User: Fold AAA family ATPase from Alteraurantiacibacter buctensis.
Amino acid sequence: MTLLGHKEAWAQWRAAMAGARMHHAWILGGKKGLGKATFALTAARELVAEPGVPQPPGEHPDVIVLTNLPASKEDEKKREDGKPFALKRNISIDQIRQMQLRLNTRPTLGSRRVIIIDPADDLEKSACNALLKSLEEPPQGTFFLLVTHRPGRLLPTIRSRCRMLPFRPLDNREMEEVLEREAPSGSPAARTAAIAAAAGSPGAALDFVELDLGPLHTLMGQIAATGDADFKLRGKLADAIGTRPSRERQAAVLDLARTVLAERMATTPMTQVPALVETNADLAQLAAHFPIYNFDPGLLVMEIGTLLAHLAPVRTAG
Assistant:
């Protein structure tokens, strides 16, 4: 995704680069889909570049990215073939240790090296502890960029050694610009719905358009508003997700359900707040289990529909 917005983040970053002493570790924090990883890669290349030293156009030897690896050898083969593949749930301690071995050598092209961890939310506990040692005693010229969607879940000892760089949601004008450029085939109605559902996250908006989530969003909104006593809307929801949806589409549907829940917050009377809190907890638990278990897509979306139906006002006989 082409970079857009985040003027405040760029201003802080470039002011730090121009200063006498650049902080060695940064947390890039904000909701998922804001472009933090793209920012990290661009910022890292700016940091390692030196006058008179040609920089490679593709992967940079002095920009090391640690992220979730393919889940299996079969998934590694799929990645090599350019096919969709599943990822491991966590970034392991072995990945951190391999990175630390590289820190024993000098940077390849210049005097600086950047380690990007994306997302730092997925670090194993043992990996966090291992990373902490590098943050406490970083080698000369080594910088760390920790991309995180939930900064508060990082260890306090890690947060205390990093400078926070916050990322705000994009406004509607910026979101429209992203969709017009990145998803020009989407209809104006789909773009409008995507902007409303994504709440300032361009990544979520692009998923909305590219994964055709509009019909699902409409049905979820209807279920949350009116309930689904005869299960007809949930049946339509199961049809809308498709018979063999990808894991990416299923994950996006889970995210969309939580967006619908957030939309209901603005109009929910106090009497319905307990149901909203309970539904939020149940959706969070379902989202946490999704990477571990292979849910049947139809049953998954029916469960989502049932949880959203709990948000509908209770109707009494008149």
Q: What stands out?
A: The chain has a mean pLDDT of 89. Residues 7-166 form a domain with the Rossmann fold fold (CATH 3.40.50.300). The radius of gyration is 22 Å. The chain has two domains: 7-166, 211-309.
